[in-house]
Amino acid sequence: MAGRFEKVMDRLVFRRALARWARLAEEAPGMGLEPLRGLRSRARQMRRELDRVIHQAEYRLALPVIGSNAIRKPTGTDWAWRPDIWKGQIPVPGMSSVAARAQVCEGATIFHDCVRSELTVRQIRNTREADIAPFGLRMDVFRFDGSFLSLVLDLPPDASDGLRLRHLLRVDAIVEMEKPLEIFARLNIKHGPNVEQVVRELPLNEEEVMVEFDLAYTKVNEKRIEKLWIDLIFEGPEMNQIILRDVTVSRRPRAEL
């Protein structure tokens, strides 16, 4: 009952305040300079707080909804995952002059071998109708004097639970760039003391940007799989802006012949 009463009172106060400011706006053209100066000061204070509310509301209510983990999954998928960069707001949304081994967030690290870093990284909000992931990752690369640039994504422990050689691992991405470049995805599987690596090039000219890794063609000891991670390797990134709107990883068992 008390909650309902407070809501009614809030509506009444809001209506009276709105009517009062509407009246003051009508009176402002004929108001004296001194009272107008005081009115402007109060209006600016109110606008500052209103802008804060509007900013947060537009940020959180924009589609796709923050925290959404909707993922396009191929038929038969038994595991799917989207890294935190594309799923929720990260603690440090942007970095400039990115160091050679800089952690963007938990489980995501930038690697390069530049002597002088002219690389900036920033998490951005996705708002396009075509986007599923709430966030994207933008990399601005200026002069690049290194030989490699990669983003390393550590897969969570449950990625290896029940993983067998009959599985296909799939990486899907939505990529934008200022000028063409090559992006490779390298799957790394640690099994015992060994690490199996498989490299595929992302088909950026195709409508569906995805690669699949068939574990049947690897020498992985499925009984000793400990950890998986994926390197996204960017070839010739100098003077380019690269936006990864989304990256997801999924797996499914291969159809039996």
How does this model look, in words?
Strand 3 and strand 4 form a beta hairpin. This protein is α+β, with helices and mostly antiparallel strands. Strands 1, 2, 5, 6, 8, 11 and 13 form a seven-stranded antiparallel sheet that branches. The chain has a six-stranded antiparallel sheet with strand order 3-4-7-12-9-10, with no helix packed on it. It has three helices and 13 strands; from the N terminus they run ααβαββββββββββββ. Helix content is 23%, strand content 37%. It is elongated, with a radius of gyration of 26 Å.
Features:
257 residues; alpha+beta; seven-stranded antiparallel sheet; six-stranded antiparallel sheet; 3 helices; 13 strands; 37% strand
Short characterization:
23% of the residues lie in helices and 37% in strands.
Write the layout of secondary structure elements.
Blueprint: H1 2-27, H2 33-61, E1 79-81, H3 84-87, E2 94-95, E3 101-105, E4 108-112, E5 119-125, E6 135-141, E7 149-154, E8 167-177, E9 182-191, E10 194-201, E11 210-214, E12 225-235, E13 240-253
Antiparallel strand pairs: 1-13, 2-5, 3-4, 4-7, 5-6, 6-13, 7-12, 8-11, 8-13, 9-10, 9-12
Oligomer: single chain
How many helices does DSSP assign? Answer: 3
Radius of gyration: 26 Å
DSSP strand count = 13
